[in-house]
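User: I'm putting together notes for a lab meeting next week and I want to include a structural view of one of the chains we've been expressing. I don't have a solved structure, so I'd like a prediction I can at least talk through. The sequence is below, exactly as it appears in our construct file.
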Amino acid sequence: QVGMVESGGGSVQAGGSLRLSCAAAGDTMRGYCMGWFHQAPGQERKRVAHIDLGGSTDYADSVKGRFTISKDLNANIVYLEMNSLKPEDTGIYYCAAEPTCGSLARGIGYWGQGTQVTVSS
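Assistant: Thanks for the context. Below is the predicted structure for the 121-residue chain, given as structure tokens.
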């Protein structure tokens, strides 16, 4: 089984920054593509970024140049550094894990409980 716990959400003004953390159980990060998804109120969950087993990353166009996904294998933590935050970034951010990044990009995977991010204008 895959277990993940997100933290680091909060309320910030537009232009501010947050760093989200995902603590993954066991050896999840060594066997899964890891990603972050964003769910705005009333909207479907959408992929923000993912990082594969080799460390290669991919980002949604909406966050390129602003967000950075990274992982610390020794600490078993995946990070999402969010800069230049916009009001449309508001919503719940979920950490996700799936054996392949292709499946993860389609919304298939295991999920954490989410952490709330609120960006005010």
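A couple of points you could mention at the meeting. The CA atoms of residues 37 and 73 lie 20 Å apart. The first strand starts at residue 4 and ends at 7.

User: Perfect, that's what I needed.
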